[in-house]
Amino acid sequence: MSLIPKIPTIIDADKKISAIEFLQYFVLITLVLYFGKLIFIPLSFALLISFILYPVCRWFEKKGISPTIAIGISLLMVFLLMISILSLLIFQIKEFTLEWEPFKTKLLEAINQISIFISQYFNITNTEQISFFENLINHSENQVLAILESSFYSFSHTLYYAIIIPVFTALILFHRSMFTDALLNFFPSKQKGKILEILMETINAYHSFIKGMLGVYLIVGILNSIGLLIIGIPHPFMFGFIAAILTFIPYVGIMISALLPIAISWITFNSVWYPIGVIAIFSIVQILEAYIIFPYVVGNRLKINTLIIIIMITLGGILWGAAGMILFIPFTSIIKLIADRTESLKAISILLGDGKQKKEKTA
Predict the structure, then answer these.
(1) pTM over cut 0.85
(2) Lowest-pLDDT choice from 98-102, 134-138, 190-194
(3) From the CB of residue 182, how many other CB atoms can be counted at a distance below 10 Å?
């Protein structure tokens, strides 16, 4: 007799999963995902992109274009989109450098005012302040090396992902029939129709996720623009939507997008309160996006309750960092699609669901 418990599938309609078995599977899957993230992260992104590009490839193929060329055109479209975002980022940095000289003057004036304030109210002379910063710089060599090492590590991973993700995506799209046949052969003939149905609904779920993300960016852009317009920042809609688009780059994007409106507001109004207002608006909108807008808009499209969305974002961040915060949501929708059609996973289906289906039945 095998000591390994049998994994329930759609075939095991009457078999229930015990709490111990569920915990075992959860711990095992968590460990595999964490230690295998170097391969699973790009593979997951490739799977996500291939699901999004599948209808595009099918459309080109129906027009008589060969699958290889159709895949190449689809990937080129994604590449051009990424280049557009990168160009927007470069334009942002270039515009900021044009404002650097007056910005530097304002910065030095602010530092001087802070130094005078410290001297007056804390009895710390200018010489003591300079000495403090010199000591701080002298003892920060190890921190600088650690930051450089971390930056190089992140850059190497980003370069690896940039190369391997398109390769994985192209191979998944090119061999999609083979992968589908292999998947179906794991199940008896009577279950193949249900498996295909789940597969197609999974693809639709990914489309819903992307549509939800576009809705999130639109709402965030509008809120950013309105906030900047209220406090009187020049070109509020341009800055607001640039910040919304650059939130695609977690953490770093919003900080970079805030630099230019902060600098321009400081130079234009000669007051520190306007830059503080810009930071406050972007911070508030980011909090709303993370805890209300994203869970509500994307969660509703995927029919997953808000609590589970927030938990999965947090868990994804712990296991895979920023990539996990993006990828774990559609993965959760796939689990729910399978759980909805598996009697032994009914409890998971109820737990992940938004409760609307039950309310409709009750009504």
Answers:
(1) no
(2) 134-138
(3) 10
Could you tell me which residue, 148 or 363, shows the higher pLDDT?
Answer: 148
Confidence of residue 201 (pLDDT cuts 50, 70, 90): confident
